[in-house]
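anyone seen this seq b4? input:
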Amino acid sequence: MKHFPLLLALALFVPLPARAEDAASSVPAKAKMLAQRGRAAHDAGDYAGAIAAFTQAYAMAPAPALLFNLAQAYRLQGNCDDAAVMYRRYLDTDPSPEVRALVENHLSTVERCMHKLALNIPVEPAAGFTPTPPRAAVETSAAARVSITGPSRKAQIEKDVGIGLVIGGTTSLAIATYYAFRAHDASNEVAEAYAKGAKWKDVAPIDARGKAAANRAQLFGIGGAVGAAGGVVTYLIGRRTERTPVTVATTQHGVQVGMVWSF
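predicted toks r here
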């Protein structure tokens, strides 16, 4: 059964005995050579090489049997999706009832394989057939493993920036507190001076010093509060990014990547 599709391909290059010479002469020599190369690769278990040769041969001489050969090579390679496509294309060429029955049987096999892979159900490999997940699933799973293995550089930078902003904001709040005390002391000095009968010209410098201190306290206070709050938020974002669990699940349309955020 393993060599049947390859023999079928060579036979279908000459569809009718009455026109054997004309049909054979109409097939490019390179296409025949590629078909034979594909058969040799198939027999040797080199399904990737067989697929490449059959594809080139089909481009030069689109014999329906080459579609069947491609489907068989894809199936034995474990590529359920492409095997199903080739089996369906071959069925569209209206093969004989005996061959149609064989093709439909193989098609049902690879379709079951596709459905199981879509539902993330393990597929037990048959002899000479090892199903493989879609390329996108493999690449996405690899990317997910990288993100899970350790904190990303971005997350570390966000945490460091957050810590820096918190330190800077705290320092600004401390300076604001210092200037607030100076403004309060100046206000008390002005009140005491007026109580002792001082004139405005005497207390004006003290009042100006107090107002300047109050302005500085306000500026440093606002800046410090914004910096500290921003630092806390940035640090928490970095922590969430660092600890974000990533899940990968196959679906009927490919692969779904999910992230669960904890607050």
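The first strand starts at residue 246 and ends at 251. DSSP finds ten helices and two strands in the chain. kinda curious what u guys think
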